[in-house]
Every structure is written in C-alpha cells, then in structure tokens.
C-alpha cells in the first residue's frame, strides 16, 4: 500500500511547469517570448525583492534612530531646564 500523499506546502507543481514549458503548450504557441521572459518575475526579481533592494539601509537606520531617540529621552535629560527661571524674568 502506498503512503498517503501530502499536500505540497510551497504550491509548486512540477507537472504544471512541465506542461507550460513544453514547446507545444498553448501559452508558448501564443507568445513565443513568454518562456524567455519568465526569469524577470521570479526569484530575486520578484516585485517584493526589487522593492526591498530599493532601500537597502532603511530597516537598520529606522531601528538605530528609534534606539537613539529612546536613549536621548530616558538618559540625556536636560537637568537645567527649569532652574532659576521665574515668571518675572521672562519678558
């Protein structure tokens, strides 16, 4: 008895790939350049990966700036802010 088949977690179907990449498939017959252009939208060239590469240091810069603002707020308070100023001294 064969073991039960498990669902593919990645959603990749090798049979669909083989059918689409064969030279006699309908998609290839309608657009002969389709197979040649597929690489532009897969792997490192997906829309999300291109967006991530547009701002390479934004993530770490945001974290560093947030850390600095928190450090300044909690540890670098101005100790002389309200000393010696009375209402009469302000014009």
What does this 3D model show about the protein?
This protein is mostly helical. Helix content is 47%, strand content 0%. It is built from 5 helices and no strands. It is elongated. The mean pLDDT is 75.
Largest sheet: none
Q: What is the rounded distance between the termini?
A: 95 Å
The succession of helices and strands, N to C, reads HHHHH
Q: Could you tell me the mean pLDDT?
A: 75
Count of distinct strands: 0
Structural class: mainly alpha
Helix content: 40-55%
Please render the helix and strand layout as text.
Elements: H1 14-21, H2 26-30, H3 34-37, H4 47-54, H5 58-75
Provide tags for this entry:
single chain, 5 helices
Quick synopsis:
The protein has helices at 14-21, 26-30, 34-37, 47-54, 58-75. With 91 residues, it is mostly helical.
């Amino acid at each position: 008895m064969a073991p039960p088949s498990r669902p593919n977690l990645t959603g990749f179907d090798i049979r669909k790939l083989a059918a689409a990449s064969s030279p006699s498939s309908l998609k290839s017959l309608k657009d002969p350049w389709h197979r040649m252009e597929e690489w532009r939208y897969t792997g490192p060239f997906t829309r999300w990966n291109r967006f991530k590469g547009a701002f390479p240091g934004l993530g770490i810069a945001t974290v560093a700036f947030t850390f600095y603002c928190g450090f300044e707020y909690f540890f670098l308070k101005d100790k002389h802010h309200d000393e010696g100023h009375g209402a009469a001294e302000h014009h």
